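Let's practice the habit of predicting before peeking. Look at the sequence and jot down your guess about where helices and strands might fall. Then scroll down.
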Amino acid sequence: MGTQESYVVGIDYGTLSGRAVVVRVRDGAELASAVVDYPHAVVERSLPGSADRLPPEWALQVPEDYRQVLKQAVPAAVAQAGIDPTLVVGIGTDFTACTMVPTTADGTPLCELPEFAHEPHAYIKLWRHHAAQPQAERINELARARRESWLPRYGGLISSEWEFAKGLQLLEEAPDVYAAMDHWVEAADWIVWQLTGNYVRNACTAGYKGIYQDGSYPSVEFLSALNPGFGRFVVDKLDHPIGSLGDSAGGLSAEAAAWTGLCQGIPVAVGNVDAHVTAPAAKAVEPGQMVAIMGTSTCHVMSSGELREVPGMCGVVDGGIIPGLYGYEAGQSGVGDIFGWFIKNSVPESYHAKAAKRGAGIHEYLTALAEQQGIGEHGLVALDWHSGNRSVLVDHELSGVVVGQTLATRPEDGYRALLEATAFGARVIVETFNSAGVPVTEFIVAGGLMKNPLLMQIYSDVLNLPLSTIGSSQGPALGSAIHAAVAAGLYPDIRAASQAMGSVNKGVVTPIPENVGAYNALFAEYRILHDYFGRGANDVMHRLKAIARDAHKVAAEVSA
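Done guessing? Here is the structure:
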């Protein structure tokens, strides 16, 4: 194939930074990487240069921060790799989603125009911008009332994070910005536009975040019923030719070649999402291979040859992960975030001091204590809903529960119960897919939490499945590099590139039979609580959220 001296660059755009990785095409060896932190990070309090407070639930970003990754991280990674830049034959990128950029016809973000520099709606809305929740609720209510065929493809709920809710918020709260906007662009596609000068919409975000199903979007009639001014949203602002994953979106432009130090004209792959691009990096390109990207939250992605409606899934898209297969997505809203919350709020200083004395981090110290326990010894069972439930209940108003606490309960008990709760939540997802006719045959872990051996053993025991782990610590960037190699024509398709360049450690953790039985008993208790609080038997969590909102409102009025 003649790829021994060929290299590609994978660029992973995260929430706070962007990372460029140089990868050898023939075997996927990662030669060097460089990271650039976004100077403006997440804009949540006020716009750059302004003292005016943004409303609650806003999360914006600055487009120039993304360009700096191209200008700084790519040349730095290539230099660190010690290779001739002319040997780099392609670029691939991935991005957080759904992160939206309002642009002019030539791709200029509206916030870079002088007339909109102080308008929050002209900035990039990051994936975790949740201020469009009222619009999302109206979309869902109308879709349910009209029995729109696309709604079950998203587990019955369109998120406030996604393209249509954010677009409707823009129209209703800043109609002048909406009118000036020519394109409503996923950041995954905008960065490729910056690299090539071509705007190509990627199949992944179009399907998962843009309600593109069976070749069409929600109808003009549906959108007009939401707001008469929104009827032509797809036609005027959103619709654009869609590129398949692994295709080339175009050649590197002269301007981007100057930014990156790479050769003008080399192929740039169609954009992708950070979670979904990780699957080929872990050699998960066949039906039944579920990849769990475990970090602050967990995103579960897998492919299947069958189209099924899986209750509570986040989406199913034809070609959403691998062309020719249906790509499924599910998720848990909180995992590592829950462990971090517990450490911050429920662990006494004496434990921190003991951990420091041993030269251990507090997570490591609590894990060591929890590891000494027998299954069920703590007498607890918890619900992992501190950030709501993404799958399979699709209810962000749910909240966390710990049952069984006594005056003898210790921090390590609560910590282990929360580790187990997230594993139980993952089992609900796996069992739901199995029951819907989309069987999970392999569970592959990526992300930072795979470094915790106790957590991995708990997951293997709870799921009663061997766990494999991705062989790369930079899964999204490696996945983007794999797509770059396909776009450059060095492999015929993503499967072939994944086999050569991906990396996975098979069956590194296996279930312990006696543990499986013990966890089955605990999971039965979890499932009772799951259905009691999550399926309408007791809506106390919703009532408490409403009481809390009312109390905050009264407090705000009093302070004003």
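How did you do? The mean pLDDT is 96.
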